[in-house]
Write a structure and sequence with these properties.
Helices cover 85% and strands 0% of the residues. It has helices at 2-8, 10-18, 25-51, 56-81, 86-114.
């Protein structure tokens, strides 16, 4: 939903999250692609993998790496750029929760497959 939202309403969501929006057509196009396209593509990949014969650990690692990369980038941005708004804190918290859940499921599933 995040990806589809950014593909359809990039400036509205950008204003909501960052309190600003791109000022050029190229900026809006890039936002549709990176925030929208990458997020939607990863979501579709996870849905596809859910129906494919792929180990659940690989799916959970994928979630941890992608969301972990987002959280790391957000945290570095907070340290370097400063002045995050409440949406940035909320997204970081959500990312940390998703990583923790994926890690918990990864560990519990790994134990089941080892036996």
């Amino acid at each position: 939903m995040f990806g589809i939202g950014f593909m359809l309403f990039p400036t509205v969501l950008s204003e909501l999250i960052t309190e600003a929006s791109p000022t050029t057509p190229a900026g809006v196009i890039d936002m549709r692609a990176t925030y929208g396209g990458v997020s939607a593509g990863l979501g579709l990949l996870l849905l596809f993998l859910d129906n494919a014969l792929v180990l659940i650990q690989a799916k959970l690692l994928g979630i941890m790496f992608v969301v972990g990369g987002m959280a790391l980038g957000r945290f570095i941005g907070m340290l370097i750029d400063g002045s995050p708004n409440m949406m940035i804190y909320a997204f970081l918290l959500l990312e940390i929760v998703v990583i923790a859940l994926a890690l918990t499921f990864y560990i519990s599933n790994k134990g089941q497959n080892d036996s």
